[in-house]
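ARCHIVE CARD
Drawer: 12
Card no.: 0347
Subject: one protein chain, sequence and derived structure
Cross-reference: see card 0346
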Amino acid sequence: MGERTALLLGNYRPTYILARSLKMRGYRIICGLDGYDRGAEVSRYVDAVWKHTSYQSDLPRFQQDLTAFLEKYPEISDIYPVAEPVILAIAKGQLELPKTIRIGSMDPDLIKLCLDKQVLLEKAQELSIPVAPFAKTSDEADFYEKASAIGFPLVIRPLISNQLLGNQKAITCTDEDDLKANDAVWQDARFQLLIQRHVTGKRDNIYFAASGGEITRYLHAKITRTNREDGSGLAIEGKTIPPCPQLQAYSAALIRALGYNGIGCAQYLVDDDTGAIHFLELNPRIAGNHALPEQCGLSLGDQLIDLTEGEIKAAPALIGTSGLKYSWLSGELDAIRQAWRAGTMPAGQALAKAVTAARAFIADDLDISFAPGDPMPGIITLLDSLPLIGSITRRRFDHPFFFKLFIRKDCLS
């Protein structure tokens, strides 16, 4: 068999970790440039890059770009959607792809079910998995009525996982004044939202692989800090711990009920003081912190490739390494930089937080932006997160000189 070519859609920190797994299996790697934290464009495991219309802002135009690109490069045998908007668009049939191309993703019906927050929470309730009180809202009157019935504090989320409220994944409201202060945000979402009672605790992530509804690989990670004060943001520091029997049982029951095939990440809120557990969500994709389960021996990238290639390999159950501390320096510095520039964080506080981030980077076992043997993505995203320097390095995406200076790869069209 000749060299196979895989196209990765979504330029995120897990992208170049997956690229490494594919490269080790003999694939040539092309990566789309559009994405959030980026970095794959300078990875040693990526052979070429593709600059295209954003799938987030103009999906029909992206479809045109993708169709033309696949016609021009018929050697592309596999597409791995890393970005959640692309995963969902493919699952919903909003992107038309040649039937000859293999898609590195889970079953479309499974994806749609998992990313419909109301349906998934109802499924968890059926299985007696603890869920904080919640309700789906349809219009303004319904929204305020159900918010009052559930009671404060509340967490409000979009109904679909990849959508945002303004620039946030979720908004916490402590009272009715908070709720009304964000009325413009609710209006923008047409009041079609998921409201849920706010419960205390830190997020626990369960990374897994499953076959026929049975978990075969499992890792429990506890998030100790996020890039938002209310804990609702992206993880910037955490640790892996031995499996909690209760969370393991809940996860196994849910995965079995879904008949899950593939990889994913289940999330819970766990209050260490009271022991209370509440299920949050299940993401049917490669997680943002994909470097963590890979470092802990789960080889989830290879599990996804096996699924895509149609090779189901029987293997004994595997529990990932516990006791590993991890952090994300560039993600934390970028959040600090943005808050400082917006005027919501004083310079002194920003400096103190940057020192905390640097100490975590030095002390912890793993920074999730730095892949073993592939330092450039971690370095470039770290530079992107810095004031002044970042304004130069980020120009590689829109200026030919800086593209050639930093990326040094073929840019396919």
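Annotation on reverse: The two ends are 26 Å apart (CA to CA). Residues 347-363 form the longest helix (17 residues).
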